[in-house]
Amino acid sequence: MERGEAYPITYGILGLLAYWGPMSGYDVKHMFDHTLAAMWGAAHSQIYKELRRMKELGWVEMEREERESRPDRKVYTVTEQGLEALRKWQGQPAEIMQLRDELLLKMLFGSLGEPEDVAQNIRGAIVRHEDRLREYRANALNIPARGAFQRGGNAGEIGKRPNPYAAGDEEDVYPALIAHFGIEFEKMYLRWLHEALVVVEPKRSGD
Amino acid sequence: MERGEAYPITYGILGLLAYWGPMSGYDVKHMFDHTLAAMWGAAHSQIYKELRRMKELGWVEMEREERESRPDRKVYTVTEQGLEALRKWQGQPAEIMQLRDELLLKMLFGSLGEPEDVAQNIRGAIVRHEDRLREYRANALNIPARGAFQRGGNAGEIGKRPNPYAAGDEEDVYPALIAHFGIEFEKMYLRWLHEALVVVEPKRSGD
DNA sequence: CGGGACATGTAACGCGTTACATGATTAA
DNA sequence: TTAATCATGTAACGCGTTACATGTCCCG
Lengths: 207, 207
Fold this sequence. Notes:
The structure is a homodimer. Chain A has eight helices and three strands, in the order αβααββααααα. By secondary structure, chain A is mostly helical. The first copy, chain A, folds into two domains: 1-98, Orthogonal Bundle (Arc Repressor Mutant, subunit A); 100-207. A three-stranded antiparallel sheet of chain A has the order 1-3-2. The structure holds a DNA duplex.
């Protein structure tokens, strides 16, 4: 595999298509927002770019779906070459992650700012991470079962075809593992934020 | 503050300079590698770029230090405007982070690859995260006390000046909080990796 | 005598973000 | 009538990475 051929987002889209079946770029965007947003954000402009490149690589095929009184859809289907690329990717070791959390950076240099500003930032983070934890708990990353993806409207034959890549009835443990990670991560993050708030928060005399 | 004026890495460098005193770009790179690498990687080319831009913004001043039989150094010092920018940054809310961990992406679509490949990836991640945890535990992010940064060699007067921004004897809790986060994160990550390995690892009959 | 540390840069390239653009339908 | 949903795109911009470039000193 040459350098610059594919990136995590490429495989993210390819994985969505392989896992849930043929979709339009618009659908991929919605899947990203509902399943991968907390892990890997993606603007629709980026998704359309990647789909075009994957078509040039022969990893997906595109079929134009014309509809009356609705904009046309371009439905993408993973090819055998695309599946091969996914398997190859799975076999390669993943680099260790970097956190790249701006809050941690702000807090590392917290002594160069006002303590109340740091405390305010921590309180904001608590709210956002509690929201995320609630989401994770409510729907376990919103991951529908393999091949079960179906979008509203009369999407024609293509949307109703069963996913040709679905592997029968055997259950898939991986989405549950990822959801579990998300929950454990948010719980740990929140524990730490509360600890930090106690340390940082200015003590008031009348308390 | 206009869009595109400064980014996390800008404030990371500015914070290093404000916290540990005047440094060259080469020194900044070393500080990054020893304190922030796990959180925010930075190539030296990027650091030199940022230092140039910060000079144009008036956030730092540059003094050329000529030395015999050694390459010249460009020593950067934070200005009052730079400190003001840092304080302003501290007062602004931080966006919620995205994980962007390729291993999680690979595992989400683990069912599209070979189970043994996934297991191998998990084992590799365990080794790397154990290393990182050991590092964190050994030196708590390698963060020297405020103003205590000193590099080898006879670096001239500049390197020996006490940090003008150091705020006396009061201890700084923030680096310890960040180090604590790093340790808790790695512990949680490792717990999860071991759980995942048990689920994923193919059972052998003779075991 | 080769390799590491010291020290600073340029060039190429693309992911990822933000903004701009179009235009129909449907529901409040 | 205002706004959201459906649906796809282009353009600008820069962070971040990788590779290329130069030259001295010091250690084994």
